[in-house]
Amino acid sequence: MRLTGPFIRISALAICAAMLLCPLCAMGETSLTIGVKSVKTTYLNPLAPAEREMQGVTSLIYDSLIALDDNYEPVPCLAVKWDAYDNGSTWMFTLRSGVTFHDGSEMTAYDAAATINQILALAEENRGQYMNLKYMVKSASASDKYTLVIRSSRSCYGLLYALTFPILRADEINANDPVGTGPYYVTAFDPGQELLLTANESYWNGAPGYKELNFMLYTTNKELLSAYEYKNVDAIITKSATAAQYRGGTSSLNVPYRGQQLEVLMMNESAYPLEDPDIRRAIRYAIDIDAIASTVYGDMVVRTDTFMIPGTWLYKDSELYTYDPDRAVQILTDKGWSDTDGDGVLDLLKDGSKRNLKLRVYVYEEQENSVRIQAANMVADYLNAIGIKADVTTYTYKDAKVKLEKRSYDLCLCAFQMDEVPDPGFILIRNNVCNYMGYRSDKMDDLIKNGLRKALDRNSYQRYMFEIQDLFAEDCPFICFYYRTGAILTRTLFLPVRDVREPNVLRGIETFYP
After folding, report:
1. Is 240 domain-assigned?
2. Residue 76's domain spans which residues?
3. pLDDT tens string 68-81
4. Does pLDDT of 25 surpass 60?
5. Could you tell me if 46 and 93 are in contact, meaning their C-beta atoms sit under 8 angstroms apart?
6. pTM for the full model?
7. What counts of helices (H) and strands (E) characterise the chain?
8. Over 50: is that where the pLDDT of 257 sits?
9. Nearest 5 degrees, angle CA 435-CA 437-CA 439?
10. Which residue, of 181, 214, 242, is where some domain finishes?
C-alpha cells in the first residue's frame, strides 16, 4: 500500500520488537538492509544535511532538476529540456509533467523555484549544502506550471551542474522531513537507529526493483564494520581504510565510490625557489604518487593528475604527469643545483652566498584522514632522495589554514572539497579565495573568466577545460594526488552504474531488479 500521509517516527524499542518477529535481513530478495554511519542526523531535509554520509540515503527520496550520468555529463531528470537566452543570462527549463510528490500532490515549476530561492536564502546566511548555487544563479521563478525561469550569475554550461540539488514541495521547504518525488519514500525514521524506505510504485521513471531499503544507523565505523562482519546487514557504506581488507574476499564485494575530496600538494610561489615552474615540475617528477596511494591508502583513491575527474568527458590526459626522478634531477642540474659539499643536499651560489635547497612540508590531520601524515613523510622521502632537504611539520587544520592564507609555507599536503560544478577558478584565478599558491597567470585568468565561464554549449565548455588543464600541466601551480574513496561492502551487487560517487553513492539502485 502506497503511503500518502506523513511518515511515522518510531521508537528504537518498537523497531527491535518488529525485528524479533520479522528480521529485515530475511524479508525476501526484494528488500535490502544497509548500514550507514550517522550520529547527528535528526531530520531529513536535504537542503541543510547534518551529515555527509546521509546524503546518499536522502538522494533516493528526492529528485533533482538535472542528473549527472556515468560520464559526468548533465542529463534530464525533473527537467526534460532547457534553453539559454540573452547570452546565457536567462535559462528556461521545461519540467516533466505528471510527476507527483509522495503525498500525491503534483510537482510543478513553482516548487522548483521555491526550492532554488530557499537555497539562495540559506546561502545569504552562509548555510546549506548547496550554498555555492549563489555563484551561478541570481533568482528563479515559474512562468507557468511546467516552465522554470532562472536568471544566472555565471552564464555558462556549468550552470547545469549547479542544478543537481533536490526539489522540495514549495510549502515544505522549511520542514524537517519534507516529501520528495524520488523512487523511495520514508515509512519510518528513528534518528540514530533506523530509516526504512519503501518503493514508490508510482515513480515517474518506473517502479523500483527493491521494494524496501532498510538503513541501520551506527555511530562509529567500528560498529558499522562489525555489523557487516556478523551479517546483521547486507551491505555497508564506509570511508574506513579497513574496508580495503575485503577487496580480495570471495564472499564479499568491495565497490569503491569516489568522494569529492581532492588531495593536493600546494606549492608557495612566493617562496624561493618555487617561483620557478621548472622547480615545481621537478618536484612533480620526483614524487611517486601511485606508491603513496598504494602504501598509505591501500589504493582506496582515484588517482588524478588534474583537478578534473579521470575517465570523464572533461578530463585531459598529459604525458607530463609521470614519476621520473632522473628527469627531476636533470631539471635541477640544468638550473644550477648540485651537491658541492657532499652533504646530500643540493646547493648553488645566489647573490654571492651558498643556498641549500630546503623546503618545509606542512600537513594537517582530519578526523577521516588520519594517515595523511604518513603520505607527507613519503613526499619528504622522495624529495630527500633527489637532494631536496624536506622536513615535515604537522599542524591542526585551523593553524595550517592560517599558514596557507598568509603564504607562510613552502609545500603543504592538504585537500579541497570540490564542488559539483567543474570550475577550477576558485583555486587558479589570481587572488581568488583558495589560490594559496599565489599563482598568477593572465592566460589562465582569461581562459576561465572569458572562456569557460562564458561557454554555453558542451563542446566549447570541454575545449576550454582542456586548454585550462594543458596550461595547468605546463605551469604546475600545485600537484594533484587523488580523490579519496570510500567503499560499499556488500554480499550482492545492486548498483548498475559505472561511476559510483558522492554524494549519490546509491545512484541507480532503484533501476536494479534482484
Report:
1. no
2. 62-181
3. 999 999 999 999 99
4. no
5. no
6. 0.90
7. 12, 19
8. yes
9. 75
10. 181
